[in-house]
Amino acid sequence: MTKGSDAQRRAATRRGAFFRSIFVIAVFFSTISPALAELLHGQVVRVSDGDTLVVEDSNGAHHKIRLLGIDAPESAQAYGPAATEFLRSQALGAPATVHWQVRDRYQRVVGQVFVNAKDLGLEQIRAGLAWHYRAYAKDQAADDRLAYAAAELTARTEGQGLWAEAELTPPWDWRRARRSPSQRQNHSAATPQRLSPPPHWTD
Predict the structure, then answer these.
(1) Which one of 26, 57, 71, 100 is CB 3.0 to 4.6 Å from 42, fit for a cystine?
(2) Are residues 131 and 181 in the same domain?
(3) 89 closest CA partner among 38, 123, 126, 136
(4) Which residues does 61 contact at the CB level (< 8 Å), separation at least 6?
C-alpha cells in the first residue's frame, strides 16, 4: 500500500468528519425556534384570561403577553373562568421570564412564559384548561411542540379539566362562529407585525 493511498484515506476521513459535524450543527439549529429569540423579564401584574397576562418590566412598562402554543377557552365558554383562575394562581405576582420575537395584530407579545421554572402554557394544557394550538405549532421549538402535544394527549386520556366533557367547542371555532361576515373578512385580511419567521397568531 502506498503512502499516497494512506494520505488520501486520511483526507477522506477528515472530510467525512467535517461534513458529519456540519450536519449535526444544522440539525441542532433547526430545532431552535427563531420565535423565541428575545427575552423579557418582569413580574406578572395581571391575568386577563386563560392564555393572556400582563408583565411589568423593571422600568415599569406593561407588556401584554399571549401564551405561545396554547388556546384556552374564552371567558364566556365553559371552563373559561376556570382557566383564568388557574393561570392566576400560577402566575400573579410572580417574577416571569418571557421568550418571544413576535407581536400579534393586537400588539400583544406572543411568547413562552416561565414562572418558577414552569412553562405556564404547558401547565395550562396539563391541567386540561387549554388546547395545544396546533394551527400555529410551527412557531414553537420542536421539543416544545412534542411536549405540548403529549401533555394534551395525557389530559384527554385522564379526563382532566375540560376533557371531562363529552362535547367541546374549541375556542377558535367559538370565536369564528361569533364573527359577522365583515369581521371575518377583516380578520382574514389582517396582518400582524412580524419579525422572522412570519407569525401566524391572529386570535
Answers:
(1) 57
(2) yes
(3) 123
(4) none
65 neighbors 108 (Cβ within 8 angstroms): yes
Burial string for 147-178 (b: 16+ CB within 10 Å, else e) reads bbbebbeebeeeebbbbeeeebeebeebbeee
Instruction: Specify the CATH number for the domain of residue 41.
Output: 2.40.50.90
Of 11-15, 39-43, 59-63, minimum mean pLDDT range: 11-15
Question: Same structural domain for residues 24 and 90?
Answer: no
Q: Which domain holds residue 152?
A: 34-189
Same domain membership, residue 65 and residue 87: yes
Length of the chain in residues, anyone?
203
- Is the domain of 25 the same as that of 57? no
Residue 184 has pLDDT above 70, yes or no: no
- Predicted confidence at residue 37, as pLDDT, reads 75
Q: Is-contact 96 43, C-beta < 8 A? A: yes
> Catalytic site residues?
66, 74, 108
CB atoms within 10 A of CB 130: 32
Separation in Å, CA 45 to CA 23, 113, 117, 197: 44, 13, 18, 29
